[in-house]
Amino acid sequence: MLSNYQRSADKLAANLKAAGIQDSAVLQSISEIPRHLFVDDILQHKSYENTALPIGQGQTISQPYIVARMTEVLRQFGISRNVLEVGTGSGYQTAVLAKLFENVFSIERIKTLQWQAKRRLHQLDLYNVSMKHGDGWLGWQSKAPFDGIIVTAAASVVPEQLLAQLADGGAMVIPLGVDEQILTLFTKSEGKITQQALAPVRFVPLVAGPIS
Ligand code: SAH
């Protein structure tokens, strides 16, 4: 697997292009990140398929199409400086972002997942990522404002604290809803927030309450 992953990653990027991803820098990042390193050994044979996969603790690594689409949406705003990710999980989306943004900040509430993700990113020499074990509903106030915010778990209500940490001219992509979820885009311009529904999606919930 390790020896021929490059062909698999290139094929995945080609599939995502066929599925409608247009940003060539995003597709490039997908071909550069070895997704098999972000899943358990027994799932490696599926790691370049365009599907979500379990990563333990009841969580999932997101479907590559969704990772690419959410990244592409943020880049449409010319955002390149700093981005906040809520829900590090496996760290795969984090790695894709790290290739495209100057500084990536990522928050995860489950410590074991955060440790694993940190180890993988160092293994890939991606050092422009700062990670925090904490509650993503609160964002990361000391690093705000963010040009981009990407939430990779579904929020039952709009996280107002995240919107408050969005820079003027910035954009946030987030799945909203419980059973029925809609990927939603928020933009901020001269302090005014605009909301736009993008597509139906399926994510694990953005959990409220104590972290573990
Ligand atoms: N981008 C990740 C998605 C992982 S699934 C990937 O592709 O691997 C969503 C993640 O969000 C899970 O790891 C879950 O633990 C985390 N999460 C859920 N609620 C959270 C919260 N309130 N704060 C921080 N992380 C949270």
Report on the architecture of this protein.
Strands 5-4-3-6-7-8-9 form a seven-stranded mixed beta sheet. A two-stranded antiparallel sheet has the order 1-2. The protein has a single domain, classed as Vaccinia Virus protein VP39 (Rossmann fold). 28% of the residues lie in helices and 28% in strands. It has six helices and nine strands. The protein has 212 residues and is α/β, with parallel strands linked by helices. Keywords: Cytoplasm, Methyltransferase, S-adenosyl-L-methionine, Transferase. Belongs to the methyltransferase superfamily. L-isoaspartyl/D-aspartyl protein methyltransferase family. It catalyses: [protein]-L-isoaspartate + S-adenosyl-L-methionine = [protein]-L-isoaspartate alpha-methyl ester + S-adenosyl-L-homocysteine.
